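Revision sheet: structure tokens.
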Amino acid sequence: MSDRIALVCSCEDSMILDGRALARGCAAQGTELRRAEHLCRSQLDRFLAAVATGRPVTVGCTQEAPLFAEEAAAAGATGRIDYVNLREQAGWAKEGPSAGPKMAGLLAAAAIPLPETPLVPLASEGVTLVLGRDATALGVAQRLADRLDLTVLLTGEEPVTPLGRAEFPVLRGRARSATGWLGA
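Predicted:
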């Protein structure tokens, strides 16, 4: 059983929270459900009380995540805080008032710790192939041209106006294979 706290907010009653569905979903995960109407402003004390417990907290709002993170840091909170976008993904979606089970599922999914993403160190030897289908590839190449030895390979899928003055070769064709990996 989790000792997690889930904070859900109706965003000033701009969406309906199905309290029963949320309570069932949270109870199934061993999560304590706490509700608010204006968590990011007039009820910020509810957020601070939750993080003061040291328990993991899931906040059903991503829009105000920077504010919540700043307030948690200022309060010296050390517990894990996760965020999930309940408003746009469920409350304001076409399901609207019947989105309670979906919200409960989103809260449960947000509480699952993701594995660390390994970092791959990259060292450029200064040689780069920019592969693209349109003028975007040329724009990227122009931004990199002063630092790297570039070749641009355009697939020919889209018409492209040639550059007035190219500081790098621009070819048309398709990449048939690639070997290696980033950081190799």
